[in-house]
Every structure is written in structure tokens, then in C-alpha cells.
Amino acid sequence: MASVLGLLEVGEAAARERVGDLREAAARAAAALEVAEIELDRRVIAREELLEALAMSAAETTAVTEAAKETATESVSAPAPLAGTTVPSWRDGLPTSVLAPDYQRILGIVADRSGQGSVKAKEIAVVLRLEPTPAKVEGVRSKARRLAERLTWSGARATP
Question: What Cα–Cα distance (Å) separates residue 132 from each residue in 91, 120, 122?
């Protein structure tokens, strides 16, 4: 007949083995979840980039059609921006109102923080009341980078 202490030790060993197995399974599940979340973030960013590219293509097509309709006189005004459209090529005298609303808000946030050092994309996302997930932050970073590149390429400064 086995002793009670011996039976408890056998049960404890079995429980420890079961806990170890479950911990390993949980670690594998956590790793798989992390990989799936990264893939989801990449796909969200890809979809957002595609939408922006399509909007830019549509805006360029509209701009070419509008330019064909215009007479030889040049105008500083531009068509009303659409949400999500890209940053237009900048030129002197062009008001910030030609920017899409997302870009206007980003420019406003950066202007409000001028003199306080650099502004991080995550900070902009929080001020825009977006969830600070990697996908949203990357979208904001992409828009801010595009805005900065267009403004510095022309050497122009935005006028309110």
C-alpha cells in the first residue's frame, strides 16, 4: 500500500507537468497572436496607402481635366480638398485651405508645437483622437512626412 505522502507527491508532479505544458502552450499562443497582430497592422497600413494612392490618382485626373478647362490666366485658388487626398505641390501664395482636412489638422498641430522641439507621430495621433496603434501612428507618420516633403521641396511656407 502506498503512503499518503507518496500519493500527494505523485499528484503534485503531475500537476507541475500539466502547468508546464499549459505555460508552453500559452507562450506559443502569445507568439502566434503577436505575429497575427503585426500582419493585421501591415494590412491596415497597406489598405490606407492604397486608398491614398487612389485618391491621389483621382485628384490628378481631376486636376488635369480642370486645367484643360481653365483659360490661360493663372489662379492661386484651388478646388476644395477631399478628405484623405494627398498634399498638392506647393507654390507661393497657396493657402493651407487647399490641403485635405487630415493634412490641415496635422499642420495645425505641428504649428501649435513650434518652438517646443520635434513632434512625434504618436503625439499627433493622440491629439487627433486616434487610437495610438501602430497602424494609425504609421498612417499619421506617412501623412506628416508627405506634408513636410512637399513644403520643403518648394521652399514655401504655408499661409493661413
Answer: 33, 12, 6
